[in-house]
Amino acid sequence: MIISQITLLNFRNHKKRNFSFSPDLTIVVGKNTSGKTNLMEAVYLLSTARSFRHGRDYQTITFNREMARIKGLVGTDDETKELEITLTRGEVTGIKTPLKKFTINGVSKRSIDFVGILPSVLFWPEDMELVTGSPTIRRHYLDSVLIQIDREYRRTLNSYERALRQRNKLLEAIRENQADRQQLLFWDQLLIKQGNYLTGKREEFISSVNETELPALLKTGAKYMLYYDKSIISHLRFDQLRPAEIASAVTLVGPHRDDMIFKIRNPDIKSEENETEFENPNNYKDLSLYGSRGEQRLAVLWLKLSELRYMQKETGERAVLLLDDIFSELDHEHREIIFKILPDQQSILTVTDKHLIPEERFRQAKVIELSGEYE
To answer: Which pTM does this prediction carry?
Structure first.
């Protein structure tokens, strides 16, 4: 699946713009504040129905405008679809409206039916927070990958989040002596069933990443792994934590408290005889604590390349690769790794300095030049 065209209306600094993309490589060139990342954000929204930036999605609406619209043509040689997202602040001309509305070929759809039509993999400088940031960032990343390839995961995640809010409200009511503890049984059973599904799918993805061989990276001598620090959910754990949960009015276990930890092989520790690569966690050290900036950056690159391969394996399609201003962050060797994979799928990349791109690549690509702060 590729994206051939996108039209933006009142989306951040793009008041009314239309862009077309090559099925192979598109390079977006422009200074900071020209709207390069905003364009990538719009493509990502069509893919996941979520922004990759912090904050509410309605904050993407141009200042002093009531609504924004993103419309994209996506498809293959055999079929093309028009995807459209309309964003509002909850009201247009005094009439209450949904914050987000999704349509496919002009027909209204639920977000669960919209997400995943255009699979994408994003790599941008803020991805360093996947290594060094909070667990919330890493959980959001896991969800952003899995909702694109698994409709049941999308449905279960939405249901789990709704049930979690209801259970927390019930815990508060029990704390205030306004509800009975027996009422928790229904929500406990629901969260356990849904939570175990989410945990299983996250575990599958992380295992796939750890099993992926990337010779171009392995030649550096660095060996990485993701450790899944899952918050196991069960009736036993709910029973054990019941007093603490009621006191805090918060559900203390479940996939909403999962984490994944980046680790790097510790060269000072030798594996025992017949010990497989990942059997002993002591063979690896926490990358956020003991890794250099370069090692952390390389780990994110390893993750993103693994994500590309996982999506293709699970969907049978190549995801659109979105590279937002990462070449200034990478040294020459790691840029070459990126250049080698660009021909494998549709790629859209942004740069502030066109000299970061080899002249031959530049000649072969479709080039979009953004100039001026407000367009």
So the answer is: 0.89
